[in-house]
Design brief:
Blueprint lengths: L4 E2 L8 E2 H13 L2 H8 L3 H15 L4 E4 L2 E4 L10 H5 L2
Antiparallel strand pairs: 1-2, 3-4
Helix pairs in contact: 1-2, 1-3, 2-3
Length: 88
Amino acid sequence: MAERRFKGQSNLPDVDLISIAQALLVAECLSFRGAAKMFGTRHSVVGRRIRALEDRLGVSLFERHPGSVLARVFSRNAGRPSSSLTSR
């Protein structure tokens, strides 16, 4: 299955939608393991994908702690569940 990518007309980096969805779910679950379970994959896969997204964006999205993560990037929608952000 080919990954869907989003690239606007700005100078923003090209990112894949799966990575964005996984990042939102990691922020909601507060762990790579919890997000991986919901995606039906291994936490190492989610962790590598998030690290690649962070490298691509040039920012660290999460503070990593043993067994949990905290989101570092917040938006106007930070209080809303990620499912409502992705269902638009």
